[in-house]
Amino acid sequence: MAAPCKFSWSYADLAKLTPLSLNAVWQHVRRRNLDPSDLESVIVWLARHGTLTLRQRLVRAALTGEVDHVKPPRSSRKACRSTRKSVAK
């Protein structure tokens, strides 16, 4: 079995998925409304603060079980490959 990839995102990545500014995202983290290191916290926070389109996708996926398949950006795929190589050595 291949080694799992470690995923990460920045405050800027989270801000792109919401109508909030980068500073507003930072404030949510500071006030402990969001823990960027916890996937569940990020999903719940995005369900509450994400763009309308993102919230609709989340609800549709939760209700129907159908997920829009989106290829990860090339940079993510490269990061996973390099992680696997370093773990395998």
Describe the structure concisely for a colleague.
By secondary structure, the protein is an all-alpha fold. It contains five helices and no strands.
Give a written overview of the molecule.
This protein has 89 residues and is mainly α. The chain contains five helices and no strands. The longest helix has 15 residues. The radius of gyration is 15 Å and the shape is globular.
Please mark out the parts with pLDDT under 50 across 5 or more consecutive residues, or reply none: none
Report the order of strands and helices. Answer: HHHHH
Total number of β-strand segments?
0
- Which percent range fits the helix content? 55-70%
Let me know the largest β-sheet.
none
Subunit arrangement of the protein: single chain
Structural class: mainly alpha
Radius of gyration, rounded? 15 Å
